[in-house]
């Protein structure tokens, strides 16, 4: 335990609490505290550990001695997590990854940073996963596929082989992407959607077969650029 690398988690929401459990009990990290932006900080401790203002994080948890993980969900189509990820990186921190010991991730998979892969995921050979990507539990990422930066893939999602998922996408529970398709940037793939054709940027796709709605994904998520 004493030899574990110190980790500070950005956020204190449900995801941050889950990340605390997984990093502490299934990684070589030990969580020593949390950081939240001052306007959103409503308490001083979590799990008997300090919650500090994000702007003062380096005073409490020097980047030379701590790694960090940004545990923010898909709010504003992943923009809030992305902003804090970039800001944390700018402060000098190394961004941690978590891969569950109960996930299957082939040896030649390429991972970015600030990646969180929950239990039950299958990530096949020759997959590339970019920075700041969350794979919730039980997904299948098919061979030779590329998940680009800042995506959030919920649970029981199937991405077939030779697919590309663009930046900032959200994929709902039980959605399915057929092989050899491109999901463009800023797409929302709804719960249970079956995508049989490549998509267009900034669209919402629902149904089987999936069709896009008249509401843009950025409008749905109230994205503030």
Any descriptors?
225 residues, alpha/beta, Rossmann fold, UDP N-Acetylglucosamine Acyltransferase, domain 1, eight-stranded mixed sheet, 24 strands
Note down, in words, how this protein is organized.
The protein is an alpha/beta fold and 225 residues long. The protein has 2 domains: 5-90, Rossmann fold; 98-204, UDP N-Acetylglucosamine Acyltransferase, domain 1 (3 Solenoid). Helices cover 16% and strands 31% of the residues. The protein is built from 4 helices and 24 strands. The chain has an 8-stranded mixed β-sheet. Strands 7-10-13-16-19-22 form a 6-stranded parallel β-sheet, with no helix packed on it. Strands 3-4-2-1-5 form a 5-stranded mixed β-sheet. The longest helix has 16 residues, at 75-90.
Quick take:
With 225 residues, the protein is of the alpha/beta class. 16% of the residues lie in helices and 31% in strands.
Element-by-element helix/strand order? EHEEEHEHEEEEEEEEEEEEEEEEEEEH
Task: Write the CATH fold name of the largest domain.
Answer: UDP N-Acetylglucosamine Acyltransferase, domain 1
Low-pLDDT runs: none
**Percent strand:** 25-35%
End-to-end Cα distance: 42 Å
Supply the helix-strand structural class. Answer: alpha/beta
How many helices? 4
Which strand order does the major sheet show? 6-9-12-15-18-21-23-24
E-strand count: 24
Roughly how much helix do the residues carry, as a percent range?
10-25%
Major pleated sheet: 8 strands, mixed
Instruction: State the CATH superfamily name of the largest domain.
Output: Hexapeptide repeat proteins
Gross morphology is globular
Indicate how many domains the architecture comprises. Answer: 2
CATH class of the largest domain: Mainly Beta
Give the second-level CATH assignment, the architecture of the largest domain. 3 Solenoid
Over the alpha carbons, how many angstroms does the gyration radius reach?
A: 17 Å
Mean pLDDT: 97
